Amino acid sequence: MTSIDTTDKPFRIEKRQVYEAYKAVKANHGAAGVDGETLEMFEKDLARNLYKIWNRMSSGTYFPPPVRAVSIPKKTGGERVLGVPTVSDRIAQMVVKQMIEPDLDSLFLPDSYGYRPGKSALDAVGVTRQRCWKYDWVLEFDIKGLFDNLPHDLLLKAVRKHVKCNWALLYIERWLVAPMEKNGAVIERTRGTPQGGVVSPILSNLFLHYAFDVWMTRTHPDLPWCRYADDGLVHCRTEQEAQALKAALQARLMMVSCTAGPSKKHRPSRLRFKPGWQNADFRCIRSRPRSSTAKIIGVGKGIRPSNLTSLDTNSGRDRWRRRSRMSSSAATPRRPARRR
Fold first, then answer.
1. Widest CA span of the chain, in angstroms?
2. What's residue 82's pLDDT?
3. What pTM does this model have?
4. What is the DSSP letter of 151?
């Protein structure tokens, strides 16, 4: 017996897709959004709530509610603003993410490790440690405020190039302009994607794929790099090569960010860099120093320990010390236990 699809919805979305998205959201837990509805409250009428999401998404009438702004402290000082969607909106975003992720993930390069299935930060650390024995210098960068300042026009240009599903494109555009509610005030957004959204990580990965990954592979094919989310590093042979790459990478990020047409007060100055995702915190450090400290060239002054290089340079020394302690303990007879 053949089943006949009698639904007259403009978009074909299976109900199973919504249910699988709900299970993924439930596994990730998460806080309540602007409506105050928790996951436990959502599950009290699960079938009706999931049907409502499917019905609106398949008919094209789903509009995301505002995201709740939550400020969390940073380890380095200051605050990071997260945008927490509602439970229903997280499920809707998960439907789109699971739809577009297989195609986009196959597009990303092997040295991109952030927010990808089957890859982690430990994989990036392992690759970096191996390369540090071949290259003497490392250019490290950390892009500030990436999620808050992504230019929508450039991001949508990349999305439309690779995402061919019409309803996925429609809802991605709506999520990008969804307002943010902070302390009862609704804030309109013209740039960025909320950090805390389900589709935000894969969208930022797609943007950095063209802003950094492809550009780096095309312009400097002989220099290996590694990127995890919005920070990463490039291995260089000499200090002069690292300094030249630093200037080129700063110019690249500023050019990409200014193409979106920001106002003059948000454009980076030639003398100093203002806050924004395009103003990267670059540190040119020695990957194999003679001591356990590495000199910072670029932002910041003075000497600081390098966690990355200390692992590499001290690993052999630590093994030698362990073997020495084992040999000395084996050669020295143990004292007999004291009788009580």
1. 88
2. 86
3. 0.75
4. B
